[in-house]
């Protein structure tokens, strides 16, 4: 039988680096640790939705590697973004056919930013795919996602580790961040300067919530990977998996959350 403890897992955003979440989930599952509720932002929302729908972490990795995600994007005739994400929804419909939070095997909450009101909105019921698109809509790159009469962009703008939806519901919260920055002795160009600054901002957002987590897992150095570097998917998955194993070994208290054997 399973432990009576309610375990929440919060997954950060981070573009393709979010694939490392799948490796961490694999490591936790092998140790008998399974969430009773998941929350996610951006890439964490995507990984969370697939996992909560019943796909095994390795299955999600296979889908990512074999799917040409970018062919589903379309140019945006707009002053607010270069690309439209709406057509990406067609891709998600292949794997999340029910398109509803209520049909997920594990409850999920997705964070997105209401760009006009400047506040975080948490989605946990109704249609599933539009909130996922909203949560992963990088400002400036993608046209905002319209849900009802509101305009949404990436949840990571205001909350890149949504632990709040787990508070008061879960006995323990595991936070997983995929953006750890290695030290850099030389900033090569403007592009690397901007990318590093953006990740620093994202991590400040994450680390301000670290104290809300009972356990916090962060594979080192993932900030060196580009947001769209999909060729590194297997490497990112393995990095997350290895870090999960190391974390469990160094923090055996987390095994108290594992499934109890009869």
TrEMBL record:
Keyword Lipid metabolism: yes
Entry keyword Lipid metabolism: yes
PROSITE patterns assigned to the protein according to its UniProt record, in alphabetical order: PNPLA (PS51635)
Active site residues according to the UniProt entry: 42 (nucleophile), 154 (proton acceptor)
Annotated motif DGA/G, positions: 154-156
Organism lineage: Bacteria, Pseudomonadati, Bacteroidota, Cytophagia, Cytophagales
GO MF: hydrolase activity
CDD domains: Pat_PNPLA6_PNPLA7_NTE1_like
The protein's name in its UniProt record: NTE family protein
Keyword annotations from UniProtKB, A to Z: Hydrolase, Lipid degradation, Lipid metabolism
Organism: Algoriphagus halophilus
Location of the PNPLA domain: 9-167
PANTHER family found in the cross-reference section: NEUROPATHY TARGET ESTERASE/SWISS CHEESE D.MELANOGASTER (PTHR14226), SLR0060 PROTEIN (PTHR14226:SF78)
Motif (GXGXXG): 13-18
Motif (GXSXG): 40-44
Domain of life: Bacteria
Single Gene Ontology BP annotation: lipid catabolic process
